[in-house]
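pasting for the record
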Amino acid sequence: MSAEQRERLALVPPDESWAAAVWDYRAEFEAVGDALAGTADLGAAADFTGWLAGLRADARPDTVRPGRVSADTFLAVRRSDRRLVGMVNIRHALNDYLFRFGGHIGYSVRPTERRKGYAKEMLRLALNKCKGLKLDRVLVTCDSKNEASVRTIRANGGALENRVPEEDGFTDRYWIEVGR
């Protein structure tokens, strides 16, 4: 990947100015019946304001919502036109569920922007953010049948630890050495 390609995206924290873009992102997933991974439950949110308030609460250990871990959610924004192409959720720690299935990083790319290398770039940018959180080793998971995610994780240094049963399929668990 060229330097130009590596700098196509920026990870930006969501704020009120992104409300319409975030809701459009959600609508695109709903229109194709796809899951909104790495969005801190955007699909279940009643409105943007409530979703954003939850993100802000989860960003701090003293205000994180029950049953969750501290996490940061970022919008993956294309630099050339400021289009929201993806979302990334970085969890600062792992609870039992995240250790088994969810991992430290969840992400999604909007359906109309897939197959352009954005997921690979988003994961690379998220791993850089993990360094700032002093995470030396990061767990990233995906459905074992999701070849695009498998390639994305492996391209970022993911080493498969194991495959665990989940619902009707399997989740692959990859560890990535981040270092400091």
